[in-house]
From TrEMBL:
Coiled-coil ranges from the UniProt annotation: none
Domain Glycosyl transferase family stretches: 110-261
One Pfam family recorded for the sequence: Glycos_transf_1
GO molecular function, one term: glycosyltransferase activity
Keyword Transferase tagged: yes
Keywords, alphabetical: Transferase
The protein's name in its UniProt record: Glycosyl transferases group 1
Keyword RNA-binding: no
Listed SUPFAM superfamilies: UDP-Glycosyltransferase/glycogen phosphorylase (SSF53756)
Amino acid sequence: MRVTAEADPGQLDLGAFDLVIVLHLRRGAALLRAVADLPHRPHLIGAVSGTDLYLEPGIDAELVAECDALVTLQAESRRALPAGLQARTRVILQSAASPQVHPTPRDDVFEVCVLAHLRAVKDPLLPAKASELLPESSRIRILHAGAVLDPGLGKRAAELSRDLPRWSWLGALDRGAAAELLGHSKVCLVPSLAEGGAAVLTEAIVAGVAVVASRVPGNVGVLGEDHPGLFPAGDAEALASILSRAENDGAFLEHLRARSRELAPRFAPPVERQAWRELLEDLERSPS
């Protein structure tokens, strides 16, 4: 097997491959078109991201129809695709390995982590707004880790981090430090306006950390429609309310943790590997 991580269509003999997987269909449109135009083309899989589905401009459905199969990270993404593409779409849940070490959260504060780069679709400043609505007695401290992808948001995050007592932006963290922050947190918060299937959700679930997330299709598809930690996207008051409840209602916090433990087996690495194996075997049995 030969694997090419990032491919420039002009630098590859695409006809020499048995399979091409295109990540991010909008950004990979040139590669999709190059493979589709080959007289004897390899099998073609398109991996659908949240930005492909939920942000404008959308995908080119006619071009994407050239894919032999599409892969989404959760069922809501499949339902968001044009009807003609849904039959060839597989849902393959993104896995995460269980942490080897389980840090003990602090007792003197109620730490909430947000792990997301600073860009508008992640709604990174909503938790800062929510922190200002918490009761004066609250011990909640929201820690946001992520790189600056939008300079305007980065400037504002730095200002708020100085001014707000319960919200801090930590900047970019390496993978180990981010995992440690997640493990020390009582709650993992995902406030995005749109998601395809956030990796941090999976990581929080397998770590047994309580999850609070915006009610957008990408989060609902991972967590389930009835997850108790969902709140309306963009609603700072609702977010402050659910965080305050998690801080003060031990039974509710344990309910959130229990839901993560219940979901965790779905995201085990062997489950994801088996799903990919079945997809590749099906493609191997079909003509390209």
